[in-house]
User: What shape does this take?
Amino acid sequence: MKSYYLNLLLLLLLSVSVKGQLKTVSWKKINSITLQNDHGKNETIPPTKLTVLVFLSPECPLCRNYIQVLNALQKKYAEVRVCGIFPGTAYTAKQINDFQKEYKVSFNLLIDRKKELTHYLKATTTPESILISKQGAIPYRGLIDNWASGLGQKRKITTEKFLENAIEDVLNQRIPTTSQTKPIGCLINDI
Assistant: This one.
């Protein structure tokens, strides 16, 4: 019962749009968007307790560097689904499959050919992470952590793990202290 009220409160608090960013989404809409997996088969993303969608590009050095961090999150939080989303038509399923093998990606990679999911979630950058609850609330979106401090600028030590902290907060029925950061990386074309 406590979980129900916390989820309801979270949904209400997050339903307000800040700076044009969505704070709630429809799983029905997300699940209606057909994506392509790295074997060329169509897939959709059904709701789970918590889902992390990370917009990626195989050419983006930051994306490549964050694969280990995302693999670690997928391993640490088995109840959280991590999906990498490649927006657009620039890459084939084989290229994504090669990327998965080369960087030993342990989570699902999907291509958003028509950028329907990208547009719906208003993703603008790779890498950009969006944490979505089963109820459709977005408790966090933006940077994975603060390792990248600007384009081409990186800290020696990561001091803020924004995405992991948000996952931990939501799993422990707390509202994340940071709900949004501005992603740093490559802009998604044609948005």
